[in-house]
Amino acid sequence: MKSMLVQVHANKTTANANKEELLGRRVKGRVLRAAQDLKFLKAEEERVSKQLLDSQILYFLRTEPQTLYSIRNELQQTFGVHRSFGTIHPHLARMESMGLIRRYYVRSNRAGFHKVFYKLTNKGEATLERNVALIKKIARKMSA
Asked: Which CATH number is 52-144's, of 1.10.10.10, 3.40.570.10, 2.60.120.620, 3.40.50.2000?
């Protein structure tokens, strides 16, 4: 009788261990899927943010001229995205060739060095207004 009780207890213990293991695997699977979803969402946010980089740069230049360094800092502070100088500079060069921004130099207090500033042109201002209107239109349609 005693060995029968021990066997029943052992079976219950094994069953409980199997349930806990199964539950543990389910929880682990959910956590893994949630982490994958979060990773996907962050990657998607990064991709969309890169697509909006021109508009973000024009937005920063609307009030006053900026340096490459200040544009990079504004991107991080305002939108929470980190962009390297090597990512931002080609955008600036392309927008300059399109006539959206203008580059000019200011002599620095260090001998022989100049700071490069970027300024929004009238064409750039009109482009920013169109881009903002388009983004608002898309947001309204998507939230309807």
From this structure: 1.10.10.10
